[in-house]
Amino acid sequence: MNTSHLWSLKRPRQGLMKGAAGMAILGLACAAAPAFAGAKMELDDTRWISIGAGMRTEFKSVEDGAENGKDNSNDFSVASTRIYVSGQLHEYIKFTFNTEKLDDESVKVLDAIAQFEFSPGFNVWMGKMLTPADRIEMNGPYYALSWNQYTQPLYPSDQGGEAGRLGRDEGITVWGTLGKFQYAVGAFDGLEGYGNQSDNLLFAGRFAYNFLNMESNPGYYTSSTYYGALGNILTAAISFQTQSDGTGSAEESGDFRGYTFDLLSETVLDGGGVLTFEGEYKKFDADYTLASPPAVGDCFCLFEGDSSFGTLAFLFPKMVGPGKFQPYVRYVENNPDDGDKSDSTEVGLNYVISGHNIRFNANFVTGDANISGYASDENIDTFTFGVQLQI
């Protein structure tokens, strides 16, 4: 799923958990990998260029997921690899160029942004970039708290290409910070073709208020945890997206509207531990949905209904080897207007060596919720061990 920053219950079967434990122990034993810093070359007092990279690789075991339908599937994969390039050409002019390779796909352009940054309160980005949206979209996978944050319906620009890709789209965003208030508003191509024969634009916005310490991210992007590095945080945000003729087919078009409320709380306790809570409520109104497509024509259909999740995590203060342990639990519930509700529970453990730059994760997910928003045919139990590295 979507983004990178520049700086960057049904009981599991015995066999699944036994193999899972072995993989987790093996992974954590190898956790003492060295950390490196990204390269930055300064050309003069105002011009510079930097380059970095990121990757997420994982082992996944799905109960009854093998070809015979009876045994667990066991698969290694490189879920994501990215190259990050950024630079400054003038005191007020910067650029970003990032690439992404998913599994066996070819390398694709992730971000290509011309950045006109005049002041903390007013900046303009133009090109291919993240559309303003809820926190999990603005996090992307690399700055999330949990490993599997995409088990609820996503905005159109994360639907695979027709209206954008990985939360990105071509357009323009105006963003800035005014005191403790942060805003980002933009216009984008959105859905092209299908129901949008009139070539209407998609409009998006995100408005956040930092009640305690300010979150620190590039641009208008977000993170789901700062591991206590920024002190106490309490941020509430509202986001929206809307596009006339943003759903349906060429023969039968419909409109799309969606809004989200999200909240992040992070508290550094007296003993040095860090308590983190992340929550969200999302509401989509799509004239044509996955469960109720138009009668004729190929459809760009979306989820209609509401979805919510909550994640609770605790970062232990004591160092164990080069890092700290952060257990968490995440619960998701999707409630489509034209289908059965679904839910999913993720219980996980992060081993954090260098924030979001060096992180190991082991998690178990059970439930029937998925990225479409509509319920799977049955509950699915999955164990994942993942490694995330960035430079």
Description:
- The chain is mainly β and 391 residues long.
- The protein has a single domain, classed as Porin (Beta Barrel), CATH 2.40.160.
- The protein has two helices and 17 strands.
- It has helices at 14-29, 135-139, and strands at residues 39-42, 48-62, 73-90, 93-101, 108-119, 122-130, 168-178, 181-188, 202-210, 233-248, 253-268, 274-286, 305-315, 324-336, 342-354, 358-367, 380-390.
- The chain has a 16-stranded antiparallel barrel with strand order 2-3-4-5-6-7-8-9-10-11-12-13-14-15-16-17.
- Strand 7 and strand 8 form a beta hairpin.
- The longest helix is centred in the first third of the chain and has 16 residues, at 14-29.
- It is globular and about 60 Å long.
Give the topology.
Blueprint: H1 14-29, E1 39-42, E2 48-62, E3 73-90, E4 93-101, E5 108-119, E6 122-130, H2 135-139, E7 168-178, E8 181-188, E9 202-210, E10 233-248, E11 253-268, E12 274-286, E13 305-315, E14 324-336, E15 342-354, E16 358-367, E17 380-390
Antiparallel strand pairs: 1-2, 2-3, 2-17, 3-4, 4-5, 5-6, 6-7, 7-8, 8-9, 9-10, 10-11, 11-12, 12-13, 13-14, 14-15, 15-16, 16-17
